[in-house]
Amino acid sequence: MKYFTSILLLAFTLAFSAQTAHAATRDEQRSEIQKMQTHVLDRLYEAHPGAEKKIANAVGYAVFSSADVAIGFFSGTYGHGIAHDNTTGQETYMQMAAAGVGLGLGVKDFRVVFVFNDAEAFNDFLKTGLDLSGHADLAAKQGAKGKAVGGEEDILPGVRVYQLTDTGLMAQAMLKGTKYWGDDELNQHDVSYNEPRNH
Predict the structure, then answer these.
(1) What region does 122 belong to: left with phi over 0, alpha with psi -120 to 50, or beta?
(2) Please, what are the averages of pLDDT over each run of 10 residues along the chain (199 residues)?
(3) What is the pTM of this model?
């Protein structure tokens, strides 16, 4: 537990330092997250054309971009994202963090796209977030039988996930120990942060 806490503190410290260095306003941060969302979806549709129709027909979806920092045996992840309600067009800004144990030294970026086909699951995600700390690593192997097909995986009832790196779709989605929650700072109502947008 202390390792998990330490890594999360490291991840938050790195994220805070980066934000402070850029001195980005809330509008600037929101704009960057929206650009990230568009970029990630474009990459996903190129790598997995069938995903576009699934996302269009879903209740909602969420897109995250993360930096995974591995130091020695321990790793930590912090990132931002945005959830889009296909019914209302409203968007909610999110955060994510994770801690894990592994070998290596370096930093790698990866992106995660959640597709919600269940309204209750999507509403719960917006209100309370998503905690995958108790779930085993997902194994979405190319060509495998069952639900794990072509880099996508059902992680919970009505919730599908795609995970991408710089090289494309990951054959195995590694989300164990990851938590997702709303970003209170970016979701403040001082500006029209959640105006409906079409994708």
Answers:
(1) alpha
(2) 48 47 75 95 93 97 84 74 97 87 57 95 95 56 40 84 82 75 87 48
(3) 0.75
